[in-house]
Fold this protein.
Amino acid sequence: MSEPTPREPTPREPTPPGPVGPERTATPRSVVVTGAGRGIGRGIATVLAGAGWTVVGVDRDPVDDGPWVELLTGDTRDPEVHRRAARAAATHAPVRGWVNNAGVTRTTPLHRLADPAAAEEVERTIRDVVDVNGLGFLWGCAAAVEAFLAHDTEDAGGRGAIVSVGSIHGRAAWTDHAAYEFTKGGIDALTRSIAVTYGAHRIRANTVAPGRIRTEAVDAWLADADDPDATRRALDDGPPLGRMGTVAEIGEVVAFLLSERASYLTGQSVAVDGGWTAQFGTPPPPDLG
């Protein structure tokens, strides 16, 4: 019997939003998405808008068009930016969802952080990671909880739901990412704290932990590689599913967690990583002969 010819894996295309039903909200509700201008944040905003949410985006840079009714420009390290976003969203529809997504990635080898010749650069790098990935998410959660508690009524999903975009770095380590992983683990802890503290008030909180996701930034990096095809194959080979994820796939999970279909799901971190963190090492492909 001949061996089957392996097929190149292809990303799943999301199903376009259909009529009002389990996949689409019929109730007017708004959601704030930070870092909505590009990458995973834009993918999330696109899926949520297609599911009937009124999306108010936040980004550090102006973006001409997108799936939002309004995009605020601001730095998520500033708590007032989040409060401003909550007020803007409330003018369109009751605020029932919040997505903390704006984040940064930097390598931070611990053995180099004490180098006096690089003290200023180290301070800048560490502050950037901790303030954006840590305080930015804390301020966002605070603004979301305040907006949800202001509701006199609940809908089928409760008063509101928060989804924070963490990372598989919050549960597994990669070389020289100490500060980044410190903050991503903190996002999971913040999610649990909100779930426990505000569950009695019908407020839910969960984390989505993406693995390797193909974004515009990844595409630009691949284009600059010496061998783009070989580099892409190397990235695809990490997770058991044999490919990078798409921003739409992250958006679909976020949409589910914000919806009433996830009304009993809170305090959890959901890895969307193609099985990457489930594996022990990089196993050889199975013999299908």
Q: What stands out?
A: The chain is about 35% helix and 15% strand. The two ends are 7 Å apart (CA to CA).
